[in-house]
Amino acid sequence: MKELFSHQSYRVAILGATGAVGAELIALLQSRHFPVAHLKLLSSARSAGQILTFKGEAVPVEAVNEHSFDDVDLVLASAGSSVSKVWADRAIECGAVVVDNSSAYRMDAQVPLVIPEINPEAAATHRGLIAVPNCSTILMNLAVFPLHKVQPVQRIMVATYQSVSGAGARAMEELKTQTQAVLDGKPPEPEIFPHPIAFNLFPHNSTLNAQGYCEEEMKMVQETRKIFNAPDLKITATCVRVPVLRAHSEAVNLEFREPFSVAQAKEILSHAPGIKLVENWQTNHFPMPVEASGQDDVFVGRIRQDMSHPCGLELWLSGDQIRKGAALNAIQIAELLISKNLLKPANPVNSARVEQ
User: Fold this and answer.
1) Is the pTM for the entire model greater than 0.90?
2) CA distance 166 to 291
3) Which of 27, 75, 173, 205 is the most buried (most CB within 10 A)?
């Protein structure tokens, strides 16, 4: 859908502009016709000086500093939690609203954690900062929440198949380089990942807790409980890094109190926002990363009765980690703020939003 906004525009800063998510943010601001009065691209000193393009114009990348947010209405942050912790407060002090893609503030009780298709009302409680959930959390929640609204889910068991894009642009290059090395008969040399990723897979290498769950798995558990407003929801996750360039996949098993028919689940998900139902049982064609890459929707399919449990459903999904799992969700939050008059425009002539 083409988004148009009448007689208003915003001074936007992208913090982490040279990364994979930053590049996607720039592209989405343009393709979704976000009303940008002025775009400021920010990065570390190491990346400063690069020239990027927005709407056909060259935009220099600046090193972030204490004055970077003096004239900014909206900050889209995608530079990692340590960077957000340094600069978010400064941006808010300058009057900007920060939409943060990092994990820095997701579990802060004072910071709304928002997926616009699920809990848009949470955005209205912001105090200058809104957090974007983990990519795997977003993809799973988009598929589960429409069913949860009809019959509250009792337990979620999920296994993820996470592409290297989740580790950034350098990780994507590492997969390409290692793949070529293996094909040339050379050993793959890991730099970003602790193990070879070409023709290999391994459990997510984030920090393990005392129970043996890694940080990525706990993000899915804790963030889903917060977004669903269900602090006692039973969730277990196993996160795995696979040699896929872009788009994560997930195998999701859901347990309900009562049986949930496959036909009803398909009907619900076929009309759910942000979801595309992809199923062809005759040809065994279900969601795949190669088809979900670059797409706004999360592809969901292979919805079936869990043969081991009368109240269980299973589904499979693929979704673009960089797009809906990060950049698009952030842009949608900003659009939501505009639609609710919760974002100060640079030229507040008319705050009405028009969709076409």
Assistant:
1) yes
2) 17
3) 75
